[in-house]
Fold:
Amino acid sequence: MQKDLREAIKACLNTRTSVDSSASAVPERWVYSTCGYCATGCGMFIGVRDGKAVAVQGNPDYPVNKGHLCIKGLYEWKILHHPQRATTPMIRKDGVLVPATWEEALSLLVEKLQGNRQRSGPASIGFYHSGQLLLEEYYVLGKLAKGILGTPNIDASTRLCMAATVYGYIRSFGTDGPPGCYEDLDVADLVFIFGSNPAEMYPQLWRRIMVNRHKNGARLMVADPRATVPARVADLHLALRPGTNVPLLNALAHVLIKEGMVDHAYIAEHTTGYREFVQAVEKYPPEVAAALTGVPAEKIVEAARLFGRSPAVTTVFCQGVNQSVSAAETVTLINSLHLITGKIGKPGASPLSLTGQATTMSNRDVGGTAFLPGLRNPANPVHRQEVASVWGVDPGTIPAYTNDIMTMLEMIRRDELKFLWVMGTNPAVSLPDQAYTRKMLDKVFLVVQDIFYPMETAFYADIFLPAAQWGEKTGTYTNAERRVNVAYQAVKPPGQARADFDILVEVGRRLAGENLFPWRNTEEVFAEWKLLSRGRPNDMGGMTYRRLEKEGGLQWPCPAPGHPGTARLYAAGVFNTGGDFAQAYGPFNDSNGRARLWPVEYQPPPEIPDAEYPFWLNTGRVIEHFHTRTKTKRVPELHYAARDGFVEINPEDAKKLGITGGQKVRVVSRRGWIAVRAVIKDTVGPGQVFVPFHFGDLDPGEDHLKQAANHLTLGQVDPVSRQPMFKVAACRIEKVEEDH
Ligand code: SF4
Structure:
């Protein structure tokens, strides 16, 4: 393990507070909050002095992290008063963004919205937002886009992160929602990490896994093409070839069934589709899967036995599943392993998706993207009617479908989508096939609403709106175990920056009047949202901001004031399938309270290495950075720990190519190239390379390198969830001269 990584991980385990050393005294007050980065959702307090944030402290009573914070959360206060915070609205004039008043910016924005809607219809308008806003802001945005403007074009960066999981849960269980909870990581006999690296991405969850391992002797199994830290310390590492999740999981099921390690009583009582499932996995004996995945057949058998014989198994999974081939179907296979063995809904036994961004789950809860509030399906007219009656709009306005961001880019290309409003995300770094993406951003009338300026996507903006961020507004966050927590405003936004809530409500009022956008604060929005959550799987009727603060968050469903929240879903083996309760619709909704086992066939990746592009390209994350570094590159402790992009190359390959560590190389795919430093290590296997995706081109870093990994990635998507396949592509490595 690298020394710096070891120290970073150690820091996550031991450090609980970071304070501005230049502050002359301790903070005057501590404000209850939750971390604004990842969906682990650590509880914290923000220390404030003289109206400024000067410290952050982990909340020792918060059940998720017990006071611990990782290095990102620890320095989060440093992004609040950074000199590059966006403080003034801007409008593009003569090709240049120039300062404007809010009145000028919002008048132009509303004029464009109305003009496009009248001339070209609601579908000429699009929204692409974030996993970083508040639950209440997603709710307002969903109403504005779907209920007022009536556009189907609304998506978020959550599409890049958890879309496949959402569709996988819906197909297996009838509705979205992680069945398990973090406590499962404390008590599982086996933690199976599939396509995830929690040591770097979810340090506080990794801490809990390691405590279980050391205290209780929990076993650890990892499926990952890379030899990550969890893979290196695991009892069993299944180093599968990229793009071969399906044959590996099918083979595990095959062995479980063949060796009698399934729970026939549970299958008979609580599932449907077993016969078809058995027929499908019949075709994947370990030897067949070994040839496809590269994992030896005996290791596959050993893995299946470890899974089958461990009384309680928790499978955690993330982008190695979600950003891959057949992603949503792979999620159903993980669910199916738990269903056929009856290892679900009990302590230590569940599938548990590790969601990426802080409020991705909030967005899913209130229908900020593909679905409607309360895990409702827009294709279901009953669901549209229920939502319209609370929103006070005509149900005919709400579209019966939605379009994802890749479809929206295609609509821009075809001149169908003319107005795109981007909030709190950075597609000019994060979307695949950057050459194409940037061309489309340049073509459309683009509104960018963000907390920092400059940032990459703002290069293409026609209107720029400065937004408030974490610590500057009050509202709720739902984490990856369905725990809802409140975060209070600690300091005022800088300059003229305004909360996304304020901006959206004002635009809503200008378009549809105050009657339809009556809320004065987010707590009033939360109260309205609770009406729509009533009786739904994610019922939050029993939650109030006060309760969330007092009780350390509450896990949905929490339907009544005295209800303690729900740690695990499906404990009684009753699933959300069938009838209008289900989020699934049409052919995916035939199971009447039983979970569905889906047969899944292996589809080879759309692009594989060949003579011209001989390496597998894998993209991912590092512990120091978050998403496209909009925030983390502005924290010196994080920036200087990981300033630039790099490519990991296996020592054997480096030797063959004559490349040494630290040398500048060009990584080239069919879509573009980047120039980064080589890191020679055996974390990647021969024939594979790894590039972190955080780095863009605007902030040039060392030697002005072009280093956005998404110049290389494929624009193709998983056909079910429309999530891009960031983790499978082919590339080659070229040496470049240092003065290039
Ligand atoms: Fe924040 Fe995630 Fe780190 Fe916790 S683990 S401090 S939520 S970034």
Summary: The pocket of iron/sulfur cluster is lined by residues 35, 37-38, 40-42, 65, 69-70, 72-73, 202-204 (CB under 6 Å).
